[in-house]
Amino acid sequence: xxxxxxxxxxxxxxxxxxxxxxxxxxxxxxxxxxxxxxxxxxxxxxxxxxxxxxxxxxxxxxxxxxxxxxxxxxxxxxxxxxxxxxxxxxxxxxxxxxxxxxxxxxxxxxxxxxxxxxxxxxxxxxxxxxxxxxxxxxxxxxxxxxxxxxxxxxxxxxxxxxxxxxxxxxxxxxxxxxxxxxxxxxxxxxxxxxxxxxxxxxxxxxxxxxxxxxxxxxxxxxxxxxxxxxxxxxxxxxxxxxxxxxxxxxxxxxxxxxxxxxxxxxxxxxxxxxxxxxx
Amino acid sequence: xxxxxxxxxxxxxxxxxxxxxxxxxxxxxxxxxxxxxxxxxxxxxxxxxxxxxxxxxxxxxxxxxxxxxxxxxxxxxxxxxxxxxxxxxxxxxxxxxxxxxxxxxxxxxxxxxxxxxxxxxxxxxxxxxxxxxxxxxxxxxxxxxxxxxxxxxxxxxxxxxxxxxxxxxxxx
Lengths: 279, 172
Fold this sequence. Notes:
The structure holds 2 protein chains of 2 kinds.
Chain A: H1 2-5, H2 8-32, H3 37-84, H4 87-116, E1 121-129, E2 137-140, E3 153-156, E4 159-167, E5 172-176, E6 183-188, E7 194-198, H5 201-205, E8 209-215, E9 225-228, E10 240-249, E11 255-262, E12 271-275
Chain B: H1 2-21, H2 34-46, H3 48-66, H4 72-85, H5 97-119, H6 127-171
Helix pairs in contact in B: 2-3, 2-4, 2-5, 2-6, 3-4, 4-5, 5-6
């Protein structure tokens, strides 16, 4: 009697075994031949990427809401203030404001031109982000049809955002430099001292990236700009990664380590540029 | 047949919600794991076989969309579907405490699995801080969402069972 009660377990066990074996086989297969993963993603991406593309519009609405509510109070105070001022002051203000905006615009244009003009680039939109909180990846709406390849560098406003790790026909997965598995060899913009920039979950939650293996006597100060190194195997040189902070000498008394404030705002990342040149 | 169609449709909706909306909710840095909730709900309400297949396909699609290794999260979802399925018809699902506890433990198993196989093997040992910053917030959020989602699935399942019973009676 007691044996019969658990009889159903045997058929379930076989299903469990078969499904587990399927998973293990595909795990081993994708682990050993990571480059071919794109072929198997095609079918699913055909189904999901148009829908998630459309849904992203709704997601955009949410993130706009977030910004709007933060700006609301500020704007209200500003409106009251402006109403009190006379027309002359208002006109003056408008003039200053338009000057200020055009100045800012020109500044950012100049920066981009200076830094990245020598590379061919394509713009892309972020359409999905990694669901869990362990990793830091996102999907963009450009793929091999637009000429994207694995290991292409991705930049956003400010500097280096990540690197393309998987490519499908009309989408690509980008692993951001915050990710725990990322290592970028870097140098200081002014001091040229080499170091390693490593993603780290602990630092990620505070908005930082780890900076390690910098020589102890390197001439580097807080908030110095850190850029990608010419010796890096995957990253193009001279892309801004971030700004060094909290530098300390390591216990071995030979190297320094600290943190980087990333140049890119990963929280609100929406538009990125893919550099169409591999190193 | 009707059930399979409905379940795959629901899975598609949950996956799209998961990858495109839930990680953009203002003021929150974490997101609930809907696929996990759906997997253990299927196990609790329909048994091991349904739980395992739900977990298998849900995990597989998530892996294909964003994962690095296909089959990695699928594997743990299958195990969770299987384990919760063992309580099928042995554990009452009428009390809200049951899905809450199950949600808590399946999230814990899921995160331990990721920690061990993706972080511990690379000598990242700082479990305390991972727990504080990643695991704990996600568990809380998932448990809260699971109360709502499980409730909906529970009533949906009851409706479906009723209509299945009625159509079975017609043949008698």
